[in-house]
Write a structure and sequence with these properties.
The strands form two sheets. Strands 2-1-3 form a three-stranded parallel β-sheet. It is of the alpha/beta class. The protein has two helices and five strands; from the N terminus they run βαβαβββ. The chain is globular.
Length: 84
């Protein structure tokens, strides 16, 4: 089984992964959380999640499973902060 890694400093995501009752590690990738000009909210959230997962993957062993998530949700094409 591959190592499970959370690429986020979110306490809420940490709590949720603990519910799996499986060991995991946490890394804190340095990914800017700024929406690009003319970027839709959906594209922003997808890009942010992928960027965090890729940055996290670069910090761990190649066979790890890395979870990344954007720090925002979308509501009517507007990015809003997630509730932690």
């Amino acid at each position: 089984m591959s190592e499970l890694v959370l690429a986020s400093g979110s306490p809420r995501r940490f709590e949720l992964l603990q519910l799996l009752d499986r060991p995991f590690n946490v890394v804190h990738p340095n990914v800017p959380e700024q929406r690009l000009p003319a970027e839709t909210a959906d594209d922003y959230v997808r890009r942010l999640a992928l960027s965090k997962a890729r940055a996290g993957a670069a910090m761990v062993t190649p066979n790890s499973t890395v979870l990344g998530r954007g720090g925002a949700s979308c509501l009517r094409n507007r990015a809003v902060n997630s509730i932690h």
